[in-house]
Amino acid sequence: MSFDAPKFDPAEFSGVVRLFPLPSLVMFPHVIQPLHLYELRYREMLEDALAGDRLIAMAVLAPGWEQEYEGRPPIHPTACLGQIKTHVRLEDGCYNLLLAGVARIAIGRELKPTTSFRRAKARICFDRFPAKFEERQDALRRQLFAAFRRALPQSSVAHNPLFQLHETDIDLAALTDIIGFTLELPLKLKQTLLAECNVLTRAKHLLNYLGSEAQAAERGPKFPPEFSRN
Q: Can you say how many angstroms the Cα of residue 211 is from the centroid of all Cα atoms in its chain?
């Protein structure tokens, strides 16, 4: 995982995305996800992205996708735009890559199929910072660091790069995304966090969940993130 902002200029975004929908992987901005691509359509998607803007939209399949997986099953309307940071083509033609999340996007009209992979119109969803945000950010950040530390085993805390940073070295928007991605939270909560552009509301969602002792047994780390296979 990296806390360095990828070089992405929203002003240069074309408004069209390549869709990479998976059943249960919710990706966020500010994080890096390793991926293994073996389906032909997604290998072609990657090659198209490498020849163009290097962007792929990680989306989540809506319930009932199993019956239509080979086609165009519905997806959730909010996705994460990812930028290819590095890739390796394997001897069998498959790919391993690292994808960096760069922005939340709202998926609009899906385009008529002209390629083996899906494409859609999309718009960037920018973070919103409500009134008096600066006054509340530091306190919420400290609370989130403390709650995150409690949710991780001590061995993970010791080796997690997030805790090698001083608490004031990362802004609240990035912190909510990193925590939401790193912990094994319920899929519905992850989707809620991804869809929420109000940074304070995102932080409160996380604090409410992490502060619930009833959920303690369900939480666990996934650092470093596992390879996701399509």
A: 23
Instruction: Name the CATH superfamily housing domain 10-126.
Output: LON domain-like (2.30.130.40)
Q: pLDDT tens digit string along 189-223?
A: 999 999 999 999 999 999 999 987 434 444 455 55
Domain residue ranges of the chain, discontinuous segments joined by +: 10-126, 133-218
The arithmetic mean of pLDDT across residues 112-119, rounded, is 93
Q: In angstroms, rounded to a whole number, what is the distance separating the alpha carbons of residues 219 and 180?
A: 11
State the Cα–Cα distance between residues 119 and 15, nearest whole angstrom. Answer: 10
- The residue-averaged pLDDT of 147-175 equals 74
Q: What is the C-alpha separation between 101 and 19, in angstroms, rounded?
A: 14
In angstroms, what CA-CA distances link 123 with 17, 88, 184, 195? 9, 29, 28, 13
